[in-house]
């Protein structure tokens, strides 16, 4: 391994990003709602921004275990220094819990991932203004929106 590769800040895979046990993590296969938040790191802030986002995700994972899990991914091909955060929620009701993870002055809507850490980052310094966007996804499950059939009702494995 080259010296350059050894000194780069790498974002670990999702399984290595949290101390929460695997059976308590929400992911794309078991979450009812997924929020993708994307932000462009401002030049010169790469390491600091990556560390702050990872720390904020672990705060969410530890505070809302079983209700929300958050993981950060870096865009591999496309735009350099663009981060994607996937927040998996048990339900839309848990979004309100997420908003309040740090109390009244720490709303998740502020900044890239909220200002819920006492010595938290100044998101506006680390991310390009206007670059943060969000997409809310609701994975389809058989049985949702009237798609449950009589046969499915007979099979407990089909009904969740």
Structural domain tally: 1
Order of helices and strands: HEHEEHHEH
Task: Let me know the largest β-sheet.
Answer: 4 strands, antiparallel
Regions with little confidence, pLDDT below 50 for 5+ residues: 1-8
| Side-by-side strand order of the widest sheet | 2-3-1-4
- The helix/strand class is alpha+beta
- How confident overall, as mean pLDDT? 77
Write the layout of secondary structure elements.
Elements: H1 3-7, E1 33-40, H2 46-63, E2 68-74, E3 82-89, H3 93-99, H4 123-126, E4 133-137, H5 150-154
Antiparallel strand pairs: 1-3, 1-4, 2-3
Describe the structure.
This protein has 160 residues and is an alpha+beta fold. The protein has helices at residues 3-7, 46-63, 93-99, 123-126, 150-154, and strands spanning 33-40, 68-74, 82-89, 133-137. It has a four-stranded antiparallel sheet, covered by helices on one side. It has a single domain (22-154), classed as Alpha-Beta Plaits, CATH 3.30.70.100.
Name its key features.
single chain, 160 residues, alpha+beta, Alpha-Beta Plaits, 5 helices, 18% strand, disordered N terminus
In short:
The protein is an alpha+beta fold and 160 residues long. The protein has helices at 3-7, 46-63, 93-99, 123-126, 150-154; strands at residues 33-40, 68-74, 82-89, 133-137. The protein has a single domain, classed as Alpha-Beta Plaits (2-Layer Sandwich).
């Amino acid at each position: 391994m080259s010296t350059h590769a050894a000194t780069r800040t790498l974002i670990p895979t999702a399984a290595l990003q949290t101390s929460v046990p695997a059976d308590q993590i929400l992911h794309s296969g078991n979450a009812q709602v997924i929020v993708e938040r994307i932000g462009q790191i401002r030049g010169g802030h790469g390491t600091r921004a990556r560390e702050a986002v990872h720390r904020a995700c672990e705060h969410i994972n530890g505070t809302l275990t079983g209700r929300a899990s958050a993981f950060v991914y870096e865009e591999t091909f496309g735009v350099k220094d663009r981060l994607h955060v996937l927040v998996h929620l048990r339900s839309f009701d848990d979004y309100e819990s997420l908003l309040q993870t740090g109390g009244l002055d720490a709303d998740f809507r502020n900044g890239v991932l909220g200002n819920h850490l006492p010595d938290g980052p100044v998101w506006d310094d680390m991310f390009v203004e206007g670059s943060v966007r969000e997409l809310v996804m609701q994975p389809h499950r058989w049985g949702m929106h009237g798609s449950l059939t009589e046969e499915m009702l007979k099979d407990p494995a089909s009904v969740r």
